[in-house]
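Narrative summary of target 7.
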Amino acid sequence: MAAKITNITELFHRFHQCEMQLRQGRIAACLVGFREIIERSPAIPKTEKEKNELHQGIELFLRSLSAHKKFQDIFGAVSFTDADLETNLEFIKSMIVAQEEDIVERIQKDNEAAEMQRLEIDREKEKLREEAQKKTAAAVACLDQDDLAAALDIIGADEHLREAVAQHFNERGMKQRAEKQFADAAVSYSKAIAVSPDDENLYYNMGRAYFEAGNPEKAEELLASAVKLNPAFKEGRVFYDYLSRLNAPVPLSAEKKAEGFFGKWFQKKR
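Modeled conformation, tokenized:
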């Protein structure tokens, strides 16, 4: 049960809830809430501006309410335009009281229907999730067999599926790199890049694998691709600049090399 309305802020908030319920077609719940607004409003202090704003809102609300088919199903054709607002409010309050049992029953039915709809939506989401998992597994299996064409055919134009497959191989590569299986990691990253060639982070991660394997020249090539894809890629730019200096004809001093690039710049694994 909703908390009792005690001030103008709560009154407006509850009224806006009624307006939303009306737009959603939840007429029974809307009427129950509106009755409380009618009952509590006289006791709530209001400025002249707040009073006018509330009255204008209620007048518009009543017109929309009377035109709504579900409202007409309960009360028939009703017009609120021929009397002053206070008279209209008393009239609708009496109508709601007279039909309270029917309204409560309708609220229960609306809630049951909403729950059934929610369950149906959840079932559909679960079905889509399972289908996506199956397609991801199928695309991964194709790539594990070096059949890129088949994998891309499965992925098609589904960007969420493309991202899931690339993420699978990216995570595999990170695990392999952590276990110092650098050659395997490079293969995994290359498969991720094959399905998602515009992701600069994949080139960066593959570059790290080559760097840690002792191949800074190949790492530089990959980082060049990363920063070309995204010139604003800060970590990639820093790593690329470092590799450019490291691979330059005039090498860095032994002291600089000993500092360890990743010890300074990258404490966190990707």
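The first helix runs from residue 8 to 23.
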